[in-house]
Specification:
Blueprint (H helix, E strand, L loop, with lengths): L4 H9 L19 E5 L2 E4 H9 L3 H13 L7 H16 L5 H12 L4 H24 L3 H11 L4 E8 L9 H23 L4 H8 L3 H4 L4 E5 L6 H9 L4 E2 L4 E3 L2 E10 L5 H19 L3 H12 L7 H26 L1
Antiparallel strand pairs: 1-2, 3-4, 3-7, 5-7, 6-7
Amino acid sequence: MKKKLITSLCLLLTITTIVTGCGKKAELDDNKTAVSLDGIKITATDYYNELKNSNISKLVDMIDHQLFDKKYKSTDEEDKAVKEQISQLKENYKDNEDMFLSAIQQYFGVNSEDELEEMLRLEYKRNEAVEDYIKDNLTDDEINDYYKNNIIGDIKASHILITPDVDSDASEDEKAKAEKKAKQQAEKIIKKLENGEDFAELAKKYSDDKATAKDGGNLGYFNTDDMDENFMDAVKKLKNNEYTKEPVKTQYGYHIILKVDQKEKAKLKDVKDEIKTTLANNKLDNDATLHYQTLIDIRKENNIKWNDDELEEQYNDLMNQLINNVANNNTNTTN
């Protein structure tokens, strides 16, 4: 989620809405002069109206600073993430400070590196708040279903890997032939296993995974996030001391997998926080608009009240534009 820091900022800062209307207005004193020259005065009300009609996003930042700065204190992790974001931006301009400053002013609406850092820190805290809110609103059914279907005990397995012998610039026909040859070789090794030959000895002789071949293909213990999805799907179906009867294809080639052992899976109470984090991130990945919708909900739950109808309308317009922008951007990306 935090890797989207700059993207969401770009969407927020490139939108400006100008709305006029009537209704409730925040009370300011027209008799209070903000600045004057040669008999001309600009009142505090004049200045307020100009600001509110051109910079609603700044007001949203002020609101969120009040909501999140005290709750989410800066941490070493935040410091590291923000510094890395700034370094990546600077890298694009090869230490040209003027170009860097011009770029952040154009794309982020800030005039200095300090202002950029403040903005990135706020977005980091927003991300933390969004994730926490989603986690707090997960149902027991969602958590229990994920635990039942996705949490497994660590698995120990060995494998024999046969990789297609083909150059990266090979033609499609050459790649297909190499794939076919690799699969056929894996099938021959399975035949040898069926004839009683030793898995470890076959791994030492045939496996293209040289790091494990010398140890009989031993992969040690691993879990879901450690392996290719196809590999995990295959090994989960095996009983202990059972091997795959068909080659398992992954991005690395064709595997013959021997399941050696599987531990009991962790108790729900011990992995509940991990599950909630995973489910929250999955929801955010699957719904591009959820980040902004959640921030809207957080502000509502903190009893946001508008004493100026024009500001409220601009705020609603801004939120709608942000949601529509990320939805459209996600649609274009997936097409």
